[in-house]
Write a structure and sequence with these properties.
about 450 residues; globular; 2 domains; alpha+beta; binds FE2/S2 (inorganic) cluster; Naphthalene 1,2-dioxygenase Alpha Subunit, Chain A, domain 1; binds fe (ii) ion; seven-stranded antiparallel sheet; about 20% strand; Rieske Iron-sulfur Protein
Length: about 450
């Protein structure tokens, strides 16, 4: 790591990596540095413009193939006022449709998840029309009572584009948008060695938060807030020396080096109990690492995690990872509204979706994927909170049910610290005293994705 901080360079975690190397610092991209006007975060006009020009044209993460195992499995995905049904229509095909009956607009499915049994159809509960899994009409009840011109040209459910990357299912309402892969830019290549299908859903939380979706995501694409909002991470990460990389298509990354005492630790040489606890959790013996200082302890964590992977049947995955990929938190922003915190043993996927009618609310969702373990004594760790599973030898055989927290603390220790602050920030944005957000270069990802939104809005 280097100390020669400049705005262009920022902090670099792996200075030996260069060029196409996925660990390399991305070439500098200039970002606007102006004050971000607070109206962006509460104006109804802004929200309407985004709904019309942004959300109808981008790839939106809708769910996981984990929930579409067999033909007829479906989930519902709501985006602002729109609602979609995503269904496995054949063994090798997943399709997405507006979840709206073409007769008189009833929602077709009401549940978040479900299964349409083999041979059955998507059934509208209002007047009983039925649709095949490929969206075609199976039955218009009492069809002979409809004048022919009424049904003429009615093709069934309106389909939207649906593409899958790394078990994540995305939809796009724009027929002319670039492919999902093109929109993900470097992320596809950077995460080619990470296989989300090997992980199981450990937890999922979903709920309405009193803050604009941008107010919220912006608290998750910088680590500048970590010392003060999440002080528990100080002994195990570097909060200042985080690497921020900006890519095309509004995407970006931060690498949070993890498993050592960083700049904010009282004495970085000391191996703290938190660091020892991390190593011990993954089955490492801290006595083997007494030659390492707190600042060097990532070596102990990398060694421990590689042994953990072999014991638990994931040695093949870890063989493809650098030590940095084994220890660190690789945080990617998929434009516009999804982040991935990619650890070697788990991934946290979060999304922030606009509320159907109130620009000062959004729908927050956090889904934890965790590699199952073979070691019957091994607990697993939730990447959302670093909380440890009650169960040993976790296999993840049953998909954790989606939870709908009502109180901030039900989001888990780390997320609750963010969730608690967001409604206050949203109110602060409305104060007469407040003229806009002033961002450091540790917050450059915010300027970067806002500039991409502006391109969609043609501002
Ligand atoms: S609204 Fe669906 S059958 Fe009438
Ligand atoms: Fe946070």
């Amino acid at each position: 790591m280097t100390d020669d901080y400049t705005f262009e360079r920022g902090y670099v975690i792996y200075p030996e990596a260069d060029g196409e190397d996925r660990s390399a610092k991305a070439p500098f991209k200039p970002v606007p540095t102006g004050i971000v006007p607070p109206e962006r975060y509460y104006s109804a006009n802004e929200a309407a413009l985004e709904m019309e020009k942004l959300w109808t044209r981008v790839w939106c993460w809708a769910g996981m193939t984990h929930d579409l195992r067999s033909v007829g499995d479906y989930f519902r995905f709501d985006l602002g006022r729109e609602t979609f049904i995503v269904v496995r229509s054949t063994e090798d095909r997943i399709q997405a449709f507006y979840n709206v009956c073409p007769h008189r607009a009833n929602y077709l499915v009401y549940d978040d998840f479900g299964k349409i049994d083999r041979g059955a159809s998507i059934y509208c509960k209002f007047h009983g029309w039925r649709f095949n899994l490929d969206g075609s009409v199976r039955e218009v009840k009492d069809e002979h009572t409809f004048p022919p011109e009424v049904l003429c040209g009615m093709k069934g459910l309106k389909e939207v584009r649906c593409e899958v990357w790394n078990s994540m299912v995305f939809i796009n309402q724009d027929e002319n948008a670039p492919s999902l892969e093109a929109s993900l830019d470097v992320i596809v290549g950077h995460l080619a060695n990470r296989d989300f299908s090997r992980m199981k859903i450990y937890d999922e939380v979903y709920g309405v938060i009193d803050a604009n979706w941008k107010t919220a995501i912006e608290a998750f694409i910088e680590f500048y807030h970590a010392d003060d909002t999440h002080p528990q991470v100080i002994p195990i990460t570097s909060t200042l020396r985080t690497q921020y990389d900006l890519y095309d298509q509004g995407t970006s990354r931060m690498i949070i080096p993890t498993g050592y005492s960083g700049d904010r630790a009282k004495d970085p040489a000391v191996v703290t109990d938190a660091l020892k606890g991390f190593v011990a959790f993954f089955g490492g013996n801290n006595d083997e690492y007494t030659h390492l200082s707190g600042a060097e302890y990532r070596e102990a964590l990398a060694d421990t995690l590689r042994k953990w992977a072999v014991r638990n049947g994931h040695g093949d995955l870890f063989d493809q990872l650098t030590d940095g990929e084994v220890t660190d938190d690789w945080n990617y922003h998929i434009f516009p509204n999804v982040t991935l915190n990619v650890f070697s043993h788990s991934v946290l996927i979060q999304s922030w979706v606009p509320h159907p009618s109130d620009p000062e609310k959004h729908i927050y969702r956090a889904l934890s994927l965790v590699l199952p373990v073979l070691d019957p004594q091994q607990h697993v760790m939730d990447p959302a909170s670093f909380a440890v599973s009650a169960e040993k030898g976790w296999k993840g055989e049953n998909r954790a049910p989606r939870r709908y927290p009502e109180k901030p603390e039900e989001w888990g220790t780390v997320l609750s610290q963010d969730v608690e602050r967001l409604p206050l920030i949203q109110k602060g944005l409305r104060s007469r005293s407040y003229d806009g957000n002033r961002l450091s270069m540790s917050e450059c990802r915010i300027h970067h994705y806002l500039a991409e939104i502006d391109r969609y809005l043609m501002k």
